[in-house]
Write a structure and sequence with these properties.
six-stranded mixed beta sheet; 8 helices
């Protein structure tokens, strides 16, 4: 069985964060491990407060796991602090982790910062270690300074993020009007993944980015190509949220 590590914050509601990641890993038949970057007080509609763990503790969590497990892929979600970002970069630079998916989390949907100001300024420095980066439109705009109002803007931002070091960039277009579409750029080819808008209560869609990035990481661990990983992750995400709406 392949093993996947999530480096992310804890969501006590279970809809996002490491709890959601572990559930997604299991759905893909992989063993899930977790390293906690932060604890939060939140539910499916709002993040009330956030406390990042010390960088030393994050490092010890990951190094202790590496003593026992061979980690086939990893993903980052909420990182919490510059200190934690630096820990992740050092581990990547040392070759301790591979197949890293970077979900470029900056804020909650409600606007609560999930990475401190110093960390937000340096988040782009993690991109050279990413096999896939998965920013949404707001994050892509913040990282590149590009205003995104449609597919052309998404492509421009994806290419800019690729130039910052990410091997592949998936810009998520869920915030666009009309039918959603995600855009993947691998340095040579642009691939558009079109989807359908699923209607339901807002709470049903809590953790969308976490599920997608976790599913991509699980597929990479199983040896899928990046394009197939994104395709399978998109399929899983659609089924996941259809089931939530039906529940």
């Amino acid at each position: 069985m392949k093993t996947v590590l999530t480096i992310a914050g804890s969501d006590p509601s279970g809809g996002a964060g490491l709890q959601s990641d572990l559930r997604t890993f299991a759905a893909f038949g992989t063993r899930g491990l977790s390293a906690v970057t932060a604890v939060t007080a939140q539910n499916s509609s709002a993040v009330k407060s956030v406390m990042a763990v010390p960088g030393r503790l994050l490092r010890e969590q990951i190094e202790t796991l590496l003593e026992e497990f061979t980690i086939d892929a990893a993903k980052t979600g909420m990182i919490g602090s510059l200190e934690n970002l630096s820990v992740i970069k050092r581990l990547m630079k040392a070759g301790r982790l591979r197949n890293l998916v970077v979900d470029t989390v900056l804020r909650s949907t409600g606007g609560k910062p999930l990475l401190d100001k110093a960390g937000a300024k340096e988040l782009a420095s993690l991109l050279p270690y990413a096999v896939v980066a998965t920013p949404n439109l707001i994050e892509a705009a913040a990282l590149t300074g590009i205003k995104i109002t449609g597919i052309k803007g998404m492509e421009k931002a994806a290419k800019a993020l690729f130039s910052m070091g990410a091997a592949n960039v998936l810009v998520k277009g869920g915030h666009l009007k009309g039918e959603p579409a995600d855009l993947l750029y691998d340095g040579k080819e642009v691939t558009l993944f079109k989807g359908s808008r699923i209607k339901g209560p807002k709470a049903a869609f809590h953790g969308t980015g976490c599920v997608l990035s976790a599913a991509i990481a699980a597929c990479l661990a199983k040896g899928f190509s990046v394009k197939k990983s994104v395709k399978e992750a998109k399929r899983f995400l659609e089924e996941e949220f259809k089931s939530r709406v039906r529940a």
